[in-house]
Amino acid sequence: MAAVSQWRFKPWTITADEPAQIMDYRLDQEQPIHINKTLERLKCGDIGRAALNTADTSWVDLPVFRWTRSYLAHSLSPTQMPDEKRLALIAKLNASVHSIVRRCNAHPASRYVRFLPEEIRVLL
Hints:
Number of helices: 6
Mean pLDDT: 85
Number of domains: 1
Largest sheet: none
Strand content: under 5%
């Protein structure tokens, strides 16, 4: 972040020979750009398959939960959601992981968001 904040750019002049370009700079290439849309569509069966190869004590580290925490941590400004509430939601998600995975295993055709705590689900 410190390095990125020091980057300097020349203004881009758009011409027929040099059309506008969109650059995507991300630190976490594994996480989809529109993570909330990805999370909304994610099926429980995908989570169940990922959990099969992971010790239940490590389910909290599955990509889906990392992505959800990242969304909660970075998608809303502090004026939209104070840090205390954001941290409380992340703690609630972490505490719900085992229940979410078990419920997803029981309903593989359901969507992941169905089993999120309500206050997290509405933010997606």
